[in-house]
Specification:
With about 190 residues, the chain is mostly helical. It has helices spanning about 5-60, 65-80, 85-105, 110-115, 115-150, 155-160, 175-180. The protein is built from 7 helices and no strands.
């Protein structure tokens, strides 16, 4: 073999290993994102299991808040039935909005807030919401890493060839963003 052929084979081998490395990195990043969402799913399952208990407890006190409770139940059902990651993100944002509305409504029921079962459920839901927030941050971090790899050169060339695409973050929807931009009202 001549030196030229050996150099060409070495260059081709380097390029092949480089492409394999980029592809494997993209797969690893995609799997990290999916694993991060699986962690969110665990927290969502717990959240979905607690919501009926919370609604049942509240029903005893807030019988005239039927529409609000139905909205929470419908949002929970939609969240449970969502299939894709993007559908779950949208459904969970709706459920978070419905739960926020429930929390605001409950301020009118001082007896309910003193009920031990209700307080325990509220504590459990707060704990799950905190865990969900941490899981969402990890998911968004994994999504950012994948999106960076999909959008930056030279991996973007291979990403397009192998069907990798930019994925959405788990963000607060625009309808809720307005409420977050306002200062909270504090009543004593």
């Amino acid at each position: 073999m001549t030196t030229t052929i050996i150099i060409i084979i070495a260059i081709v081998a380097i390029i092949v290993f480089w492409v394999i490395g980029i592809y494997n990195n993209l797969v690893r990043l995609r799997n990290n994102r999916e694993n991060a969402f699986a962690n969110i799913d665990v927290q969502l399952k717990q959240r979905h299991d607690l919501i009926p208990q919370l609604v049942a407890t509240v029903k005893g006190y807030a019988t005239h808040e039927k529409t609000l409770l139905e909205n929470v139940t419908a949002a929970r059902s939609a969240a449970i039935n969502a299939n894709s990651i993007n559908d779950k993100i949208n459904a969970e944002n709706l459920l978070s909005s419905a739960l926020a509305g429930l929390k605001v409504s409950l301020e009118a029921y001082p007896d309910l807030k003193a009920n031990q079962n209700f307080m325990q459920l509220q504590d459990e839901i707060s704990d799950i919401e905190n865990k969900l927030a941490a899981s969402r941050r990890f998911f968004n971090s994994a999504t950012k890493e994948l999106n960076n790899a999909v959008q930056t050169f030279p991996s973007n060339v291979l990403a397009g060839m192998f069907g990798f695409k930019k994925e959405p973050m788990f963000e607060v929807p625009a309808t809720q963003r307005e409420a977050l931009d306002k200062a909270p009202e504090i009543n004593f």
